[in-house]
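We include the pair:
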Amino acid sequence: MRQIMQTESLSGKKIIVTAGGTLEKIDGVRYITNKSSGKMGVAIAEDVICEGRMLLLRAKSSVTPRYLINEEVFETADDLARIIDEKNFKL
């Protein structure tokens, strides 16, 4: 990441980072999830926070950032899609 930062400026760019796994309900008592801690996504967000307009989309189960970062928390893939739609991000 640092190598990218040295060669290309992210200043003024809109940066979206997702971190952590989703929890997908099967029925009223069962669900499928994964073990993603979100550490890598949070580390990337912390590294690029000053380089542009940063938004961290973080799973409820992921680690929390060490710094004050503009973030939205999600639990399911549907929650994540809703946040992306509400923020009018073009993917």
